[in-house]
Amino acid sequence: MKASFIAAVNQICSEKNVKPDQVIEAVKQAIATAYRKDFGNKEQEIRVDLPEGKEHPIILLVKEIVEDVENDNFEISIKDARKIKPDAEVGDEIEIDVTPEGYGRIAAQSAKQVILQKLQEAEKQSLYEMFKDREEELLTATVTKVEPNWVTLEIEGMTVSLPWREQIPGEHYYTGKRIRVYLDTVELTGKGPQLRISRTHAGLIRKLLELEIPEVRNEDVEIMAIARDAGFRSKVAVKSKDPRIDPIGACVGQKGVRIQSVMEEINGERVDMIEWSEDPIRLISTALQPAAISAVIIVNGNESVDEQGRRVKKRAAVFVEEAQRPMAIGKKGQNIRLATELTGFELDMYNYEELPAFKAKLAEIRGGPVAVVEIPKEGEEEVAVKEEAPTPVVEPAEEEEKTAEQDSGNATAAA
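The structure corresponding to this sequence follows.
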């Protein structure tokens, strides 16, 4: 085709963010569709050639060469085929030039709508491919419109909606504001690619920490778990792969400058950094900070499935002094809820005075010793692990026999 056609294709590619091959293929398909509608029928196989330097497209009707023609829409006899191509053989395909005179202008008018449709499809596919490989990544967006239930954002030329459930509670949005969002998933629908973005996803905290903290980005410090109550508080458990690096200090930064940058990006949401431990007792007591935990009993250390097929979660009993209980539970149960999410244990809170009774009851159920881990107070060096045997349960009949034996022994001694 002429240079002007190529220039137009390049312009479309730039505006629609599609590849030249996609545009040219869309034009060919549109011209073929228009030809079938105006001059042929839908059964015919039509190919379109856009030769370089030519002003108009060439329409080619493709037929199979056979001995006896049964359907002349896609078959041609060997005799007729050799009039067009002398060396034709049965079983070959032949392309017949069926371009109507002056078809360039007719094709442009007939194919315009089809071309636009094909370009829209190509644009959708191109956008899908562009974002599909960027799932679970951080994207920068600009607010273009604010509605009561959603905010419209522009992300790299694409319009995306941020629904209210994915917005940080209490955050103020205004036109022109630049924010970072977490790309959860990308789906290709009839309306084009749909980007599921979020400001409340725990992945946003992870990606912001990677952005602001070199040790996390370089994987010297690993994020093990995140629990988040968006807009209010997050707990992040980290551990260091290098013994020379303090994971908490690396994340917080000098005078808290690093963690402060993360908190500013999420509308002042508090982010607590805790050190990860493979010891569930230590992890649970740390996750419930700032409350001071007195003792922990692991009731069920592994997830399992019961006889009814129900999932039995890991469970632990946590004992605190009465004065520490409100702090351990937190406002509206936030602290214990986040600790539960972070550790993977269902946590049951008890007053420290209930420990002996709980321990005896659990020992009776298990029929064996119960491990009680006392959490050291500040200044103490070790965590004391106590295992106590269950209190023997004496049945009434056995008790009567023992009493009779004792009475008999006393009588003998008296004699």
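Residues 382-415 have pLDDT under 50 and may be disordered.
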